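Summarise this fold before class:
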Amino acid sequence: MRQNPSFAMSDIGEIRRLIEQNPWVTLVSSTDAGLVASHYAVLLDPSRDDLTIVGHVGKPDDLIHGLGDRELLAIVQGPHGYISPGWYGDTQSVPTWNFVSAHLSGIPELLSPDENLEVLERLVARFESGMPQPRLMWEPPNDPDFVRRLERGTAGFRLTPTRVVGKRKLSQNKPDDIVETVIAELGAGGSPYADPRLAGEMRRDFETRKAAR
C-alpha cells in the first residue's frame, strides 16, 4: 500500500482498534504457483499489547500458503466508501474513496493443537457473544470429540508483524467546512453512498485533529 504522510496511521492503539472492530481480514502469500489470497477472521493476541494477531485457516490452505515458511500479508479493511465531487461545492474536483486500512506482514508461527483450540474457542465466543442465546464451542450439542475433529481440520497461527503500514484517508487534506459536508452526506439516509460507519470514523478523526491544533 503506497503511503502518504498526510494519511499515515502509525499509532499502535489505533491500529489495534481497527483490527478489533474489523476482524475479517485478507491473507496474501506469494507462492511458487503465484499469489494466493484467503479470507479469515483474526483476533488480537490477548497476551500481547502489540499488533500480534492469532487466527486459523482451514486445511489445506496452510499448505497452499506455505504457512510458517514464508511471509504472510494480512490486510485489515476498515470503513470505506465513495466520496462524490459534488460534496466539495462549486470547485474543480474529482471523486475519491475514503478508507481506513492496515497491512501486517511477517512470517507466522504455527500453533500447537491446544493453542489452536484456544483460538477457535475465543473466535466462537467473540462472535456468539452478541447472540440472544450464545452457542459456545464446547457446549452441547457439541461434544469434545466433535470439537477436536474440527480443530484437526484447521491450522492455527500467530503473526507478529515485522512490517506494518497503516493508512487513514478521511479527507484530512480538505478544509473543515468540506469535511463537515462530507460527514453529513455520508450520514444522510437518502444518499446512495450513505455509510454511518465511515461518517463516524471521519467524525472521530476530525474531532481528534481539531483538538490537537
The mean pLDDT is 96. Residues 79 and 198 are 5 Å apart (CA to CA). Residues 5-172 form a domain with the Pnp Oxidase; Chain A fold (CATH 2.30.110.10).
